[in-house]
What does this fold into?
Amino acid sequence: MIEWKKFDQWKSNVELIPWKVLLEVWIILWFWKRKYWKNSWQNLDDFEDRYLWAALRHIYQHQSWEIIDQESWRSHIWHALTNLIFLLYKQIEDNEQKLWIWISENSLQDIEKMNIERN
It folds into this structure.
């Protein structure tokens, strides 16, 4: 009899994501989508400062025993987490852009170096 193996030990485990947390973040995003327009959060001036301060305000309100946001009726912690997710998204996007710039610059240098070595 043939023994089958599945080599998936290096694949991501989606079950590690706490789904209840993602659901709460989704609810916050749904609330914001109704209040603003879809993905408008990506195009704000002073992006990092605004979302960092918004997250800190929600954390402060939570620490001050105002557990529920009066506008959305969801926990301030969920709002803070959503703001931090936005900050992480922006950081990832910026790092990817920097990486591509670095790759393109270094690739051009390598091409130039190869051309010089040929001549």
